[in-house]
Design goal:
With 386 residues, the protein is mainly alpha-helical. The protein is built from 17 helices and 3 strands. The protein is globular, with a radius of gyration of 21 Å. The chain starts with a helix and ends with a helix.
């Protein structure tokens, strides 16, 4: 006969397994990326930036009502460990919010309010941080490292060569329907490259460390645990994961003022949602007021306005600052590489490891071994963000 501890452990593992089945189809980025970005970009430019794009989104292939019902009928009261029970309650509420985001993609304010609930919005201080960064002069763009030179096929070879630093394998594919120039799809261990983009040397330095060195590393570490939630993600993991990824750019010596400004513009663009800006108003603010060239202004605006108002992009800068401060305080970053985890739950992760439900990180971000940043201005900026 099973003892009480074994039964409690079984309840936890069963609930974790059930949640795993529920969330395997709800990767938000699979649904929020428009499928007609390039066509709508051309139409928007032809309208002299006046007629907002009408984006089309992938079909949703899950029953939202069944998923919500199954989330909230999980018997979490059977998890006797109060600390773990509270964690799983947070997890259920978090993923229910993600489902609400997905089910309202393309529905304007409905999606925006659900995005706010799941990802938040920048504070006044965070907007001031972004504006502070914009005061600094960026690097000379005539430097060859900023010249587009690598086709997606050439970029694939560079990514594969870089991946040799880690003992894992993953797939690489191209897509013409994405707002980013590259991203990792966690649920299928795939790196996706924008088929319309020609990559610079600096971008390859950024992306190898960001996408493989962190996002793929945490994907692969997440698969090693008994608890599947490390793969899908703890609540509010985006800020920490993106913070770790940009911090990897910094540690590898690839973070530039230009890149920091890009993250700052995202914060300002997300803030424009709260001010009620339309797509064209956000674009014109970036293009006319901040002198961003039209392609970059369009893609930043698209990232922020997709779905109806996607607020997550401000978290790259806030996440970088939190991870940077965490590192500077002498903390071990490996606990944050155990999967798609959040800094908020660092002590809970250690607790799960101590209880035998999780394991320490097998793969460690290569760039974290040594700080190769030589740009003192970047150090000054990161030290003085508030």
């Amino acid at each position: 006969m099973k003892n009480k501890v074994e039964m409690a452990d079984k309840a936890l593992l069963d609930i974790d397994k059930n949640i795993d089945k529920l969330v395997e189809k709800i990767e938000l980025l699979n649904y929020v990326n428009p499928t007609n970005i390039e066509a709508e970009k051309q139409a928007f430019f032809s309208s002299n930036y006046l007629i907002d794009p009408v984006f089309i989104y992938p079909e949703k292939d899950f029953d939202k009502f069944k998923i919500h019902k199954r989330f909230f009928t999980q018997p979490i009261e059977q998890i006797e460990d109060e600390r773990i029970r509270n964690l799983y309650e947070d997890i259920i509420y978090f993923y229910s919010g993600v489902v609400r985001c997905i089910e309202t993609i393309g529905e304007g304010k409905k999606f925006y309010y659900n995005s706010l609930q799941s990802f938040g919005s920048p504070t006044e201080q965070e907007v001031e941080n972004a504006k502070f960064i914009l005061h600094f002069e960026e690097e000379d763009q005539n430097n060859p490292v900023f010249t587009p030179k690598y086709t997606p096929d050439q970029a694939k070879k560079i990514f594969k060569e870089y991946a040799g630093r880690y003992d894992f394998s993953f797939k690489i594919k191209e897509s013409s329907a994405m707002g980013a120039i590259a991203m990792v799809l966690n649920n299928i261990q795939t790196l996706v490259l924008n088929s319309h983009h020609t990559f610079t040397e600096n971008e390859m330095g950024i992306l190898t460390n960001h996408e493989i060195g962190v996002h793929m590393v945490t994907t692969m570490n997440g698969l090693l645990h008994q608890l599947k939630i490390f793969s899908h993600g703890l609540p509010n993991n985006v800020e920490t994961q993106e913070g770790l990824a940009v911090f990897s750019e910094y540690m590898s010596g690839n973070l530039t003022i230009k890149r920091l400004k890009e993250l700052a513009y995202r914060v300002i663009a997300v803030d424009s949602l709260a001010k009620g800006y339309t797509f064209s108003q956000t674009f014109r603010m970036l293009h006319n007021s901040y002198d961003l060239e039209k392609e970059q202004a369009f893609y930043i605006t698209t990232r922020v306005h997709r779905g109806g108002g996607f607020t997550k992009d401000y978290l790259y800068l806030t996440g970088l600052k939190k991870v940077y401060d965490y590192y500077k305080s002498g903390n071990d970053l490996s606990i944050l590489l155990t999967g798609k985890v959040s800094l908020k739950y660092a002590e809970d992760i250690q607790y799960l490891i101590d209880q035998g439900f999780a394991v320490p990180s097998k793969f460690i971000t290569d760039s974290y071994a040594q700080n190769k940043n030589t740009n003192k201005t970047i150090d000054f900026i990161l030290d003085n963000l508030k």
